[in-house]
Amino acid sequence: MKFESIKPLLVLATLLFSVAYSLTPTAEAQKTNLFRCGGLVVKDRDPFRELQAKTKSEPIVTEHFTVWNPFSFPEDYVLRVSECAEYSWNTEVNQFGFRAPPDSMIDIVVLDLDIYGWLGVTFFIPVVNRIAIGIDNDIPWPSVNTTVAHEVFHAVQASYDFYEGLWIIEGTATYMMDEVYDYVNDYVGWANELLLDPDRSLTSLSYNSVLYWKYLSEHYGGVPVVRTILQETVASDGVDAVDKALQLYGTSYQTSFIEWTVANYLIGTYEFNGKTVTFYSDDAASRYSPARVNLPPDYAFAGTVIDMTGEVSYYATDYLDVRSTVGTLTISCVTPKTTDENPIKILLIRDSQVTEVEFLSHSTNFQVSNANNYDKIALIIHLYEGQSDLVHYEARITT
Q1: Euclidean distance between the first and the last CA atom of the chain, given in angstroms as a whole number
Q2: What percent of the chain has pLDDT over 70?
Q3: How far apart are the C-alpha atoms of 357 and 273, rounded to whole Å?
Q4: Bridge-partner residues for 380, per DSSP?
């Protein structure tokens, strides 16, 4: 198992160890419009066991869940939690074909999680294959539905490699809650959180990696591609697992990552390289903030040389927009690590028509004819392969 990937979970486990003993909030949590949970936390004991023993009312028992209400919150809320849990199990396991959680009768405790700023948390006790889920007591409808679906998917993940990085664990759980309850769209805040600041490594993300999983699902066969990736995590780790799984779908991690960076810039339907392509077809896509909206001001090229410099993170992206008033321009871009693994994408955009061009920064320049006929020319610079987490690049526009 990977120690680096479990450190965040161990920190959470330490923080939450007191839940069973001290449940009175000591401070008001900061609430935001971004979904947050306590993650899939691995422990050696059930932190809710004492609460269940103190519960005065009878729990609600369904086929796969026992829902406890130790603090006597409204029964209709607890009933909704139980219904959402069973619906989520049926959708994720029976309909979508994911492995059933290792615990066939999962305990859910409804309690006040405001002190942690979370809506839910899932504990996995592997020594006995037990799972315990905590759900906050006052999540408004319909977000309570997606919260429960998210936590139930953490329970599903316990049947795969539950020590994977957060970009897989939280990213796929955030993706899944929208697949189960696709009318709620609680994931959009995290999608925009990344789009407005895209120069962050995909593998360092958490909930905000959700659009990568959305992209794979929309372009490579739906939910099964995500299921195949989780299956591959049992034998491989991280990027390697994703790459091996995507090979079965005729693509690779590298290709999908580069395609995804283009999709995040465009968002919408375009005539793309002569074909009609929709980048994100979800009903909430109109609420996305494309990566292009928060860029620095466009570089205006009127014939004078423009030098553009910046830094890009590993598995991350920088976007540069150029508008030209002259007919012909030449683009060159150099990074210290210049291999075939780090191509530069250029998008020639006019209305809803986009032509994509790729060139290798170490071998060629790219000349754009009739540059002043385009609304803009976008450079997409991504670091796929390199020796450091942050690389300096230089781009130049000349005639």
Answers
A1: 53
A2: 87
A3: 9
A4: 319, 345
* Greatest C-alpha distance within the chain: 79
Reduced to 3 states (helix: H, G, I; strand: E, B; else coil), residue 25 is coil
Task: Please state the φ and ψ torsions of residue 299, each to the nearest 5 degrees.
Answer: -80, 120
Q: Where are the beta strands (DSSP E) in 28-179?
A: 40-42, 60-61, 65-68, 106-111, 120-125, 130-136
Is pLDDT at 186 greater than 80 in this prediction? yes
Note the pLDDT of residue 22.
Answer: 28
pLDDT band at residue 41 under the 50/70/90 scheme: confident
The pair of structure tokens assigned to 98 is 């994911």
Q: Are 178 and 184 in contact (CB under 8 A)?
A: yes
Nearest residue to 397 (alpha-carbon basis) of 296, 302, 312: 302
Dig out the tokens for 233 from the structure. 């995590």
Q: Which two tokens stand for residue 303?
A: 């014939």
pTM above 0.70, yes or no: yes
* Pairwise CA distance, residues 346 & 351, whole Å: 16
Q: Strand 40-42 to strand 120-125: parallel, antiparallel, or no bridges (unpaired)?
A: parallel
CA 175 – CA 229 distance, rounded (Å):
13
DSSP symbol at 314: B
Domains of the chain: 3-182 (3.40.30), 295-398 (2.60.120.1050)
Token code pair at residue 242: 């994703």
Q: How many CA atoms lie within 13 A of 298 on its CB side?
A: 14
Q: For residues 110 and 106, what is the distance between their CA atoms, to the nearest angstrom? A: 13
Residue 209: which H helix or E strand, with range? none
CB atoms within 10 A of CB 201: 17
Per-residue CA distances from 246 to 204, 239, 240, 283 (Å): 20, 10, 10, 25
Give the β-pairing of 343-350 and 353-360. antiparallel
Helices (H) and strands (E) in the chain, counts: 10, 17
| Assigned token pair, 25 | 């909030």
Q: Which residue has the tokens 């619906």?
A: 87
- Distance, in Å, from the CA atom of 311 to the CA atom of 146, rounded to the nearest integer, reads 37
* pLDDT at 182 > cutoff 60: yes
* Angle, vertex CA 210, rays to CA 342 and CA 14, nearest 5: 105
HSE value, Cβ hemisphere, 13 Å, CA-based, for 385: 10
Query: Hey, what amino acid is at 51?
Result: L
| Cα 394 to Cα 312, 334, 362, 371, 390, distances in angstroms | 11, 5, 12, 21, 14
Please give the Cα distance from 241 to 255 (Å, whole number).
15
Contact 168, 226 (CB under 8 A): no
